[in-house]
Write a structure and sequence with these properties.
Elements (H helix, E strand, L loop, with lengths): L5 H13 L4 E17 L2 E19 L2 E7 L4 H12 L14 E2 L15 H15 L5 E19 L3 E20 L2 E7 L2 E2 L3 H6 L2 H17 L1 E2 L3 E7 L6 H8 L4 H4 L21 E4 L20 E6 L2 E2 L6 H7 L7 E2 L8 E2 L3 E4 L6 H6 L4 E12 L5 E13 L2 E7 L2 E5 H6 L1 E4 L4 E9 L2 E9 L2 E9 L3
Parallel strand pairs: 4-6, 9-19, 10-17, 16-23
Antiparallel strand pairs: 1-2, 1-5, 2-3, 5-6, 6-7, 6-8, 10-24, 11-12, 11-16, 12-13, 14-15, 17-18, 18-19, 18-20, 20-24, 21-24, 22-23
Helix pairs in contact: 1-2
């Protein structure tokens, strides 16, 4: 059953074209979600609900007009369309639009099973008990999210496309205290799938890892500051590439020349050891899609190949404004946002080296085993990221744990200094905020060596 009757979508599009638009699309969304905050060994907050709405976009040349509503009434939808088109004041006599279903490869998801609320709370309680077995545990905070988003897209080129997108994620935060010392550690796996993904996780292993990480940080010494070689480990270390480089490769930045890479297509922007992709087609991954929010099939987009910039991340408006072909990357948080070029699963590809080989080449420096949050200047790619778990490297060996480390630099500079890439690739779920809201994205990388970067510290 369609979320919106096709004849109403036809009327909206015909109205938009009658008002002189070059292109019209209609986005319909129905999202059911459930959130549980488990804190102080109990469910402190439980929320669930259904979001429904329709977004209408009219494009005139390179100008886009967008409106939305949560009503399906034909007259209301035509009223919104007229309000948008009357701002331009053009007229046209369009021909009738007939929709054809888009055939696209379906991204597989991790299968789901129905479980009741009591079962879910017992699951969270078991994790809470595991993390509280250590006497230094001060607090455990678990955030569980499960949602199912159904979308439909109609446009004036005759496209009709639909997709169901299931998401599940559990963010685990552990806080430890001893005397005046305090530390924390986090782990937030997520997938395109359902409850069975969470049950596939090795609870004993990730709880043990969190306790070890928080304990190490609790007793670590202050990190020394200065420029030095740094090895950034696999997984969430890829957040630096995502923030400091990935956003600069989106046409939302390129079209405004707000990216240092806007005119670098075909040029070397990174060390030849580095290749990076934005791939929306990986089965079960948190950032994967069968179609984007413009109804285009997703794809694997090679951004950087052996240091050379090969492609940008582009949507329909991005292609109109920059000439860079669409990549199935138009995304948005909900029907309340117009789509924009956004990342999906973005990561540095695996290389030939083991972690031990990489460490052995740096002599003395820093090993950033686990990254935390940070800030980035979206125009320049200048960043400042905290390191959640870090160690000194002395004579090529990991030695003393340190705390308070930050990595400071710019995307354009650090890309040229990644001289070695490991073979053990890992992807991690995250949320990305930009002009079209907050969306599920995946970051990742294998271990990498940065020849020199400024490390901030308290020692």
């Amino acid at each position: 059953m369609n979320l919106l009757k096709q004849n109403i979508a036809q009327d909206i599009i015909h109205e938009g074209l009658s008002l002189g638009a070059d292109f019209v699309d209609v986005f319909i969304e129905k999202t059911k979600s459930q959130n549980v905050l488990f804190k102080n060994s109990r469910a402190e907050d439980k929320q669930s609900g259904t979001l429904f709405g329709i977004g209408i976009r009219l494009i005139y040349g390179e100008q886009s007009l967008y409106g939305y509503t949560n009503l399906t009434d034909r007259d209301e939808l035509l009223r919104i369309t007229k309000l948008l088109g009357e701002r331009i004041g053009k007229k046209n006599n369009p021909t009738a639009i007939n929709f054809e279903n888009l055939n696209y490869p379906d991204i597989k998801r991790i299968s789901d099973k129905e479980v009741d609320a009591k079962y879910k709370l017992n699951f969270l309680s078991n994790i809470d008990k595991r993390l509280r077995q250590d006497s230094k545990t001060s607090q455990v905070i678990l955030n569980y999210l499960q949602k199912n988003q159904q979308i439909e897209v109609y446009n004036s080129e005759g496209l009709f496309a639909a997709e169901e997108r299931p998401y599940v994620r559990l963010y685990n935060q552990l806080v430890m205290k001893e005397g005046s010392l305090q530390s924390d550690a986090g782990y937030g796996p997520g997938a395109r799938g359902g409850w069975e993904f969470l049950e596939s996780l090795n609870q004993e292993q990730f709880c043990s890892d969190l306790i070890q990480k928080a304990t190490t940080a609790l007793y670590a010494i202050p990190c020394p500051a200065g420029k030095m070689p740094v090895v950034i480990d696999k997984g969430f270390g890829g957040v630096i590439f995502h923030e400091a480089c990935g956003h600069l490769l989106e046409t939302t930045a390129v079209e405004k020349k707000a990216s240092v890479f806007w005119d670098k297509m075909g040029e070397k922007i990174a060390h030849e050891s580095l290749s990076a992709v934005d791939d929306g087609t990986i089965d079960g991954e948190w950032g994967s899609l069968s179609i984007d929010d413009e109804g285009m099939p997703t794809q694997k987009t090679t951004l950087i190949k052996n240091g050379m910039l090969t492609q940008f991340i582009s949507d329909r408006l991005g292609e109109l404004k920059t000439g860079h072909k669409r990549t199935g990357s138009a995304r948005k948080q909900s029907y309340k946002f117009a789509p924009a070029s956004r990342m999906r699963n973005t990561f540095i590809e695996a290389g030939p080296h083991s972690l031990e080989e990489i460490l052995s080449t740096i002599g003395n420096g820093l090993y950033a085993k686990s990254m935390g949050g940070g800030s980035v200047n979206p125009g320049t790619g200048e960043f400042n990221f905290s390191v959640q778990e870090a160690y000194l490297v002395e004579n090529g060996k990991i030695t003393t744990p340190v705390k308070g480390a930050t990595l400071i630099g710019s995307g354009a500079d650090v890309m040229t200094k990644i001289s070695m890439v490991g073979r053990d690739l890992e992807l991690m779920a995250g949320m990305c905020g930009s002009v079209s809201g907050s969306i599920p994205t995946t970051v990742g990388q294998p271990p990498i060596k940065v020849d020199e970067i400024l490390v901030g510290g308290r020692a």
